[in-house]
Design goal:
The chain is 46% helix and 17% strand. It has 16 helices and 13 strands. The relative contact order is 0.13. It holds the Pfam family MMR_HSR1.
Length: 450
């Protein structure tokens, strides 16, 4: 491979910036543009060296700290040089230009991590975790992606692969060698093992939506009939007067958004126009937009006021996760609140004016969206690619179980084919058999210096 160079720190002014070089000519390049007082080997593995950097005319223009990582004990698995110097864009641009003149080329987005993958330093799941960790919006998201980067999900996938390979060996022994009756407990043992594999896959898939929300944020729609307290609730949860409120129905005609954090997850609250039949063109458009937001949401807060009858149509607003919220509890007696709790045991009874019931509402939201802490032992799939491939693996496992449960002789030849397909899917998740197009798609989303 050739030698690449890029800035590894964010662009702009700062105390320090880092330029990273990776490839076989890394050491030669830094020797050509720097000078140090050391007479012997200037750059030792994992040692820092103070140098002066020189331009093409041999004139010093900067001092920097050089750190050398000898292959294969580096991030990319190649010889890597990191130049730490003053965080001035003009200085950094000069350093990168000199590196290119003396033998390097500008790195493509994600090329350092791609080389780490190609050189066997990380698998594809860990490579995807690098990008997710960089772009995580919360501490929870960063912590979860750190677990992925250090191989928690990869270990689960490799354990599944080992289990499937063991099953496949027993079944193909039966097909190729055994002339006697079936091995004792072959079918029952295989079914039991496949059931355990299916449980592991299911737990990984179940958390995918939660991981997506941790990394990208969640959308929560506040909906209901006009004047049920949607805007007041938005203001209460966000802590600011984001939406205009008033006693007149239909104050909100368009969507109003506010951002909060729930259990470490960034959440966008969306206040919407009241749901009702109207001849007013603007109000009708507002209702259409409300329904679109509901369809795109991760969770819906369906509001009904405590001072009006509650009907089923007010609650059946979404097929997705929905929390029934009874508002205006400040207008109710304790007896009426108890009555609501008995009639609607799953509802959250609140007053946005007094903040009564708000902590319980936030807990209910967290539960309905399936959010979990990064400290949880659950290790879910983190990307859509991983989810899609793992679903294919699950289908192969299900087909294998059905074939083994077939009355009469089990269809071992077909079971063998399904298990081989499942193994192939696991290899694709780990990046063992990924095409160049897939790899380019994954790494192109990275920043240049990573």
């Amino acid at each position: 491979m050739d030698t690449i160079v890029a800035v590894a720190t964010p662009h702009g002014f700062g105390g320090i910036s880092v330029v990273r070089i990776s490839g076989p000519d890394s050491k030669n390049i830094i020797r050509k543009i720097s000078l140090t007082d050391k007479k012997k080997d200037r750059f030792k593995h994992q040692a820092v060296t103070l140098v002066k950097l020189f331009d093409g005319d041999g004139i010093p223009f900067e001092e920097g700290i050089i750190t050398f990582f000898k292959k294969p004990h580096s991030y990319t698995g190649e010889d890597v040089i990191e130049i730490s110097c003053h965080g001035n864009p003009s200085v950094i641009s000069r350093v990168v230009s000199l590196c290119c003149v003396t033998g390097a080329r500008p790195a493509d987005p994600g090329e350092f991590t791609k080389r780490a993958f190609l050189n066997g330093k990380i698998d594809l799941i860990q490579a995807e975790a690098v990008a997710s960790l960089i772009h995580a919006k919360t501490e929870e998201g960063a912590s979860l992606n750190f677990k992925m980067l250090h191989g928690e999900l990869s270990k689960k996938m490799k354990a599944i692969k080992k289990e499937i390979k063991g099953l496949l060996a027993r079944i193909e022994f039966e097909l190729d060698i055994s002339e006697e009756d079936l091995q004792p407990d072959l079918v029952s043992g295989s079914l039991s093992a496949l059931k355990n594999i299916q449980t592991t896959i299911k737990s990984a898939l179940e958390g995918h939506s939660s991981v997506r929300m941790l990394n990208e944020g969640a959308n929560v729609v506040i909906c209901g009939a006009p004047n049920v307290g949607k805007s007041t609730l938005l203001n209460c949860l966000s802590g600011i007067d984001r939406a205009i409120t008033g006693p007149e129905a239909g104050t909100t005609r368009d969507t109003v958004r506010a951002s909060i954090s729930i259990g470490g997850t960034p959440v966008t609250l969306i206040d919407t126009a009241g749901l009702r039949v109207s001849k007013n063109k603007i109000e009708k458009e507002g209702v259409i937009r409300t329904k679109k937001e509901i369809n795109r949401s991760d969770c819906v807060l369906a509001l009904t006021p405590a001072d009006e009858p509650i009907k089923k149509k007010h609650l059946n607003v979404s097929s997705g996760p929905t929390v029934h919220v009874i508002t205006k509890a400040d207008l109710c007696s304790k007896k009426k609140i108890c009555d609501f709790k008995n009639r609607f045991p799953g509802a959250c009874i609140i007053s946005a004016k007094t903040s009564f019931g708000i902590p319980a509402l936030l807990k209910a939201l967290q539960k309905h969206m399936g959010l979990f802490s990064s400290l949880s032992p659950l290790v879910p799939v983190a990307t859509g690619r991983q989810s899609a491939i793992l679903k294919k693996t699950d289908r192969c496992v299900q087909k294998s179980m059905r074939l083994l449960s077939f009355k009469g002789d089990p269809q071992l030849e077909l079971v063998s084919l399904e298990l081989r397909d499942a193994l192939e899917q696991i290899d694709i998740v780990l990046g063992k058999t990924s095409t160049d197009e897939i790899l380019d798609s994954i790494f192109s989303s990275f920043c240049v210096g990573k």
